[in-house]
Amino acid sequence: MTIDLRFDEPIVYPPDPDIPEELVAIVHTTRDEIVTWIAAAVGSLAATWLVYERLTPLSGGFGFLVFWWALFNVLTWYLARVQWGAVRAHDQVVRVWITSAAAIALIPLIAVIVSIATKGYHALSWRFLTRDMSSTSSSAPISQGGIGHAILGTLEIVGLATVISVPLGVITAVYLNEVGGRMARPVRMLTDAMSAVPSIVCGLFIYATLIQPGYVHLSGWAGALALSILMLPTVTRTTEVVLRLVPGGLREASFALGATDWRTTRSVVLPTARSGLVTSAILGVARVIGETAPLLLTIFGAFTFAGNPFGDRQEALPHFIYGQYQQSQGPGTPADLRMWSAALVLLFLVLFVFVTARFPTSRGYVFAGTATALFCLWRFESTSAAIGAPITLTLIAVSAMAVALAKRARRRSHSSKGVLV
Question: How confident is the model at residue 231 (pLDDT cuts 50, 70, 90)?
Fold first, then answer.
């Protein structure tokens, strides 16, 4: 049906009987589609095997897969055309392309995870996660020593870098997107330039400007400063993109109610983009948590637990992995097994940070608080039970308070929905 609005009264033309109006419904995958894909996959596999093994002298696994995939697309289109028509046939082929592209993108990720997991599980144990290397050499059996000091150093260094970078990145993004001015373009250009700075340059900058003159010692604080330089442009650019997605109508409604620019940004823009801000922080942490080059010149490594990042040399998981790689004498040696196990722990640590940050609800606070309490429990049990127990109880109490505050904030947000606070 066609409507012509060029005249004073709209003229409605009847639909052309020669052009069928066929619509494709966006629904979940049906059983008929699954059966069609299976039939196309089996038929194309049989035809490909016949061509490769019986009719032609072709060989090679990659060519076999490419020919199979191309024939699978043809059979999928033909079977869909016979059953549902041309429009659904084109839709099925596009779905096959998109699914294939997603599968190809996941192959490297799955390969990395499987490779690290199969090589790194040998040395994993509670002792390995809770002990340090103070009385253990790299050639000692994997039952001796551990990476507890590297885990502690990684959490403190990345945590300090996050505390430095996330507020600065959010403030810079708010200035670029909400305030603007003559300095907005140079700041944005500088942020883009900082995104391309090699990580070793950040370590050299901190070493030359702070460590060598004696302002800062080789410590976790110096490593955090180097990582914050890498983290800042990622957080800034991601946050700026997130703030651009906030509808302009929300800002206009806030201004219409008499709110100032700062009140609008604080009460409307930032709460609306809360999930995006969490994502930008996660991307910033993912950018720096595996960096080794900046730490080579700033933390210098350690073999024992160092809880003070401002005055002690510390160890981090990336630096520990690099050190074990240097001391490894081949596959299967103790240093090699420790290296792969530390890489697996680093992978799980990233997953832990991601899960905790993506669920900022009461369950997320309970999860983070309980894990922190358990961490401090084994961290202080070797020092003094009288110190470890109060700290653990305090952390559990803080977690319970965080749960109560989260529930209270959620009730307030629901009760004041639609009101500018």
Answer: very high
pLDDT tens-digit series, residues 175-220:
988 888 888 888 888 888 888 888 899 899 999 998 888 888 888 8
What is the helix, strand, coil percentage profile of the chain, to 5? 70, 0, 30
* Rounded (10°) CA dihedral 345, 351, 356, 358: 170
DSSP sequence for 48-67 = HHHIIIIIS----HHHHHHH
Burial class from Cβ neighbours inside 10 Å (0-12, 13-18, 19+) for residue 108 reads exposed
Q: Which is nearest to 262 in space by CA: 169, 166, 174, 167?
A: 174
Helices 317-327 and 334-358 sit at what angle, rounded to 10 degrees?
160
Across 309-331, b (16+ Cβ under 10 Å) vs e yields beebbbbbbbbbbbbbbebbeee
The CA dihedral of 186, 189, 190, 191, to the nearest 10 degrees, is 120
What is the reported pTM? 0.71
Rounded alpha-carbon distances, angstroms, from residue 298 to 214, 230, 257 = 12, 14, 51
Q: At what angle do helices 274-288 and 148-174 cross, to 10 degrees?
A: 130
Most confidently modeled of 53-62, 244-253, 369-378? Answer: 244-253
**What is the distance, to the nearest Å, from the Cα of residue 251 to the centroid of all Cα atoms in its chain?**
30
Radius of gyration over every alpha carbon of the chain, rounded to an integer in angstroms: 29
